Amino acid sequence: MVGQGFMDLALAEAQEAAERGEVPVGAVLVLNGEVIARAGNRTRELNDITAHAEILVIRQASQTLTRERLTGADLYVTLEPCTMCATAISFARLRRLYFAAEDEKGGAVTNGVRFFAQPTCHHAPDVYSGLAASDAMALLKDFFAARRDR
Fold first, then answer.
1. What is the pLDDT of residues 1-37, one digit of tens each?
2. Is 54 a catalytic residue?
3. φ, ψ for residue 71 (rounded to 5)?
4. What tens digit of pLDDT does each residue of 90-130 get?
């Protein structure tokens, strides 16, 4: 499996999150070409504002690999990470970040604070954006449109 395939898994996690009533964001963490963790947002289900998809996969991978640093791992996520998630990505020492859709309001990678470009950032992954962006945006738009129609 390669990049698009991993992003397809993240999109499937986002779809499952939407079906649970969560904001549809999904993430997959990959190490040496193998999926180590996958998750969708669970903030409402867990009553935990930190239960973003990115945080959940970092936690899962750290438990699976029994280490706090995930050097060499790649993260695929359907939406540009927020500041909290960008910080976790940096602290986990992820190698690469692939995200689908930009988040002009809450994103912190290419928008907002641009966390990885700050001098206080300890580690910046290689960042690739736009992979399956239209699919991720459609999922988000459909989710929020359905919420407004209620």
1. 566 899 999 999 999 999 999 999 999 999 999 999 9
2. yes
3. -55, 135
4. 999 999 999 999 999 999 999 999 999 999 999 999 999 99
Q: Are 107 and 80 in contact (CB under 8 A)?
A: yes
Report the alpha-carbon distance of residue 144 to residue 109 in Å, rounded: 23
Which residue bears the tokens 């190490």?
A: 31
- Lay out the sheet containing 73-79: strands in order across: 34-40, 26-31, 73-79, 96-101, 126-129
Contact criterion met (CB below 8 Å) for 86 and 115: yes
Nearest Cα to Cα of residue 31 among 113, 107, 87, 95:
95
Say what the pTM is: 0.95
> Which of 109, 37, 121, 23 is CA-nearest to residue 75?
37
- Cβ atoms of 22 and 40 closer than 8 Å: yes
Catalytic residue from among 13, 22, 54, 80: 54
- Rg from Cα positions in the chain: 14
